[in-house]
Here is the input.
Amino acid sequence: MAQEIKQQDIRTFSIVAHIDHGKSTLADRILEHCHTIGEREMRDQVLDDMDLERERGITIKASAVRLEYAADDGHTYVLNLIDTPGHVDFNYEVSRALKSCDGALLLVDVSQGVEAQTVANMYMATEAGLAIIPVINKTDLASFDVEPVLEELESAFSFDPAEALLTSGKSGQGVHELLEGIVKRIPAPVGEADGPLQALIFDSKFDPHRGALAYVRIFNGTIKSGDRIMMMSDGSKFEVDEVGVFAPDMQPKDTLSVGEVGYVIAGMKQTKDCRVGDTITLAKTPADNPLPGYREPQAMVFCGLYPSDNADYAVAKDALDKYSLNDAAFRYEPETSAALGFGFRCGFLGLLHMEIVQERLEREYDLDLVATAPSVVYRVLTNDGEVREIENPALLPTPDKLEAIEEPVVKASIMTPHKYVGACMKLSEDRRGIFDKMEYLHGDRVVLHYMLPLAEIIVDYFDRLKSVTRGYATLDYEFAGFQEDKLVKVDIRINGDPVDALAIIVHRTFAEQRGRSICRKLKKTIPRQMFEVRIQAAIGGRVIAATRNAPLRKDVLEKCYGGDVTRKRKLLERQKEGKKRMKQVGTVEVPQEAFMSILELD
Here is the structure.
């Protein structure tokens, strides 16, 4: 870049909002206004560079971009924009991005108003001590009135209505005023350029040719190519090959100094060399203390991922290694299943996160994976006083060895129009929810607070919530610890053999109902064979539900025209014998849909 940028002319900010409130579209208009991208390269969702993000229209990973803005006061400012996801599953990405910023734009859709994730993001930004600018987006929609949203922002967060800026990510109106607001209202970075280096790694990605690439925000000091750096978490040292910024493509620079956001490449070959939340310092003159990092993301949902061909196990392991560098919240360990062979037990932040990971692994690493039904982690107390955490229902000890089972519970906030309160309460109570309190917001909006078992949320709670409220309700939840309850393991048997990958843990009250539902679903999804397939659900030795798939029948009498009945009988007897033999050696192939059908409740 031609001229040297002063520290007081840097602004680092993030855009946070509920899903679908227009963050990525507004980011596109900001990039256009700053002439960061030429007209030929311009496309929708510029910062969403994953195919999956563009197809689903959602942001999955936070991404950083450096912009230059010539302000009305004659100064040229450097703006570091960190775009963040809006879905509750990717809250962790948002909290990481906010730690690297000095300010945040709190974006609200004029037609939707304040929603559950808006509230959660506001609290995160306040906790991080950021300057917050309220922005009302989609104001080009002629039929909507801004006043109710201004009143909502005032009653929910005590914002002065005069502070709010009005924009349209679609038409670009209000973007100039927004950029002027960022320059005036978000503070410049504090820190000393000649102090000991402290650079926070807020994200990372893996390049097959150059190894791990760290996304950093410099809080103190300066880093340049050729420096010998040290990771403060474990003392490992590397030599810097290249530093640079995202503009929006990677652009090498001589140095990165205080307040700048960019990348560092330093020959880090292993995934563990470049931990998100770690502090980089200089090996020669290290800083006294690391920067406060991030609390470890807690996996909430677990499932097994198995290569459909066991010969691909080593390829799958390599792919998971590389993928885990790009996603700090994903974790995995090897496991074996009698039904599916060798695979991995994987931990995710939620169901959407799980779907995204499976799809990215299949696309980016050309894998064919079978996923088992997701479950949560249970805390088990055995008779001999040992406390164990069980992520896989198949590993639950037998009832005679169990003292108690505890399940994870979450504090859920459901935001809904008043007329759907009854439907939301019924749904939550059907899912063993415990009512906490109800708050009335501006207009006819109500927030219901419930304690809900996490296992009930991951099945199809969110889909049902959207269905009973015609899409108006929004949900936010946070982990609230473990709680003891009457839980049992339901084994699914196919022709007498338990399929460990189909085992589930449920509340005793719903065990029979879930067992019957799963048996019905499996009857539909498992193809018929030449022999009878018996499907049973059992608690211990007691069968609680059963069904069967009748055998396919070949017409062995097709060529018999009249004649002696004993010949027909002989042919039928021989067919029966053959089927008996087939049943002894026949194995039933269970398709991928069968594992996921467990998720759909009747």
Notes: Residues 277 and 293 are 4 Å apart (CA to CA). The domain at 7-185 is CATH 3.40.50.300 (Rossmann fold).
